[in-house]
Amino acid sequence: MAKITNPLTNTEVKQAKPKDKEYNLMDGGGLKLRVKPNGSKQWLFNYAHPITRKRTNISFGAYPSVTLAAARDAHRAAKDVLRQNIDPKEHRDKHKHEHLLAHNNTFEAVAKQWFEIKKTKVTDDYAEDIWRSLKLHAFPSIGSVPIHQVEAPMVISTLNPTASKGSLETVKRVCQRMNEVMTYAVNTGAVKANPLAGIRHAFKAPKKNNMPALQPAELPELMQTFTTASIKLATRCLIEWQLHTMIRPAEAAGARWEEINF
């Protein structure tokens, strides 16, 4: 005849005294309270591993931090997992690791990972501009937010003050860079989807203003300014040569002597 275990009472748990050796008070179904010689009390669930069938324990915490009722709730949850042929201890450790990883993967932490790759593809000055814009406009508000919790309304609220000042070109660039960070997060498995994909449409588009043309009558003043300006001789000669040849700046700067037909 199977031994019947009477469930524990709060009084029994509270009044359990330490002995020379540790001992267990059984609550039934594998749940027990282990009382150690130093007076500490630990809730344990003893079960058979669903694959190996070896007996093992999973801890639910110490009494009185974990009450009898809380221990029973944890016990029921573990048994539900066990019925699915899943080891409750492995299940708990996996979720704990995922939770810890998610909260350590802040937006700023992921942005740093992305930037290490991004800066190898751009000039040093441009890389500095990218990181400075994120430090100024993104990190103060959402840098410490776990990457999986970053949402479009949060970012829109962060960038609205900048947009209200009329700095729409800045907002456009920050949106683009934050999108690249989130795309990187998707590709590395930190998040499943990019919630910022269409965020730029929440702001007005910056107006493009063409640089004003220089009138012919203003050329003498320009040339006079060159002679007194604090610029290198090579730069002044380059600009004068452009005025004579009307070639693009990049073509002028990259020109070689053998390309010129004297």
Please tell me about this protein's structure.
With 262 residues, the protein is an alpha+beta fold. The chain folds into three domains: 10-103, Double Stranded RNA Binding Domain (2-Layer Sandwich); 107-202, Tyrosine recombinase, N-terminal domain (DNA polymerase, domain 1); 216-255, no CATH class. It is 50% helix and 11% strand. The protein has helices at 10-15, 68-83, 88-104, 107-118, 124-137, 139-142, 152-164, 168-187, 219-228, 233-245, 249-253; strands at 23-28, 31-35, 41-48, 55-63. Strands 1-2-3-4 form a four-stranded antiparallel β-sheet. The longest helix has 20 residues, at 168-187. It is rod-shaped, with a radius of gyration of 34 Å. The N and C termini lie far apart (113 Å). The model has no long low-confidence stretch (mean pLDDT 89).
Task: List the main descriptive attributes of the protein structure presented here.
single chain; 262 residues; alpha+beta; Double Stranded RNA Binding Domain; DNA polymerase, domain 1; 4-stranded antiparallel beta sheet; 50% helix; 11% strand
